[in-house]
Amino acid sequence: QVQLVESGGGSVQAGGSLALSCTTSGLTSSSHAMGWFRQAPGKEREFVAVISWSGSTKKYADSGKGRFTISRDNNKNTVYLQMINLKPEDTAVYYCASEAWGDYDIAPVGGHEYDYWGQGTQVTVSS
User: Fold this and answer.
1) Strand partners, 124
2) CA-to-CA distance for 98 and 3, rounded, in angstroms?
């Protein structure tokens, strides 16, 4: 059984920072991309950042460019999202996602490309 467990969410003031992490278990692939998506109240889920298995491909939504950094440690089966200069509009539930299998250097941005999802972690940014 594959599980993705996120941690690191919380409440911060605008301009603050948070670091999210997501650890997977039960996944046998060694080529899968992983990513972060978010969903704010009343809005659809949206892409935040994705990273390929190799780490050579990273993609960011325009809203997070220059402020968010995605990374992964395959030895720890963990993907990270470092967020700085947070804004109230970053408030959302952040979900970690993983492919079941993928291409070594490819990181899709569509949520439908991902097979496994975490339970989500709340990020709240106050003004």
Assistant:
1) 11
2) 10
β-strands 10-13, 18-25 pairing = unpaired
CA angle 26, 27, 29 (to 5 degrees): 155
110 CB-contact burial (10 Å; exposed 0-12 / middle 13-18 / buried 19+): exposed
Q: Which long-range contacts (CB under 8 A, 24 or more apart) does 84-87 make?
A: 84/17, 85/15, 85/17, 86/12, 86/14, 86/15, 86/16, 86/17, 86/18, 86/123, 86/125, 87/14, 87/125
Q: Which two tokens stand for residue 2?
A: 């594959």
pLDDT by residue (tens digit) across 48-93?
A: 999 999 999 999 999 999 999 999 999 999 999 999 999 999 999 9
The DSSP result for 49-95, as a single string, is EEE-TTS--EEE-GGGTTTEEEEEETTTTEEEEEE-S--GGG-EEEE
Beta carbons of 114 and 108 less than 8 angstroms apart: yes
For the chain, first and last CA: distance in Å?
40
Could you tell me the two tokens for 85?
A: 């200069």
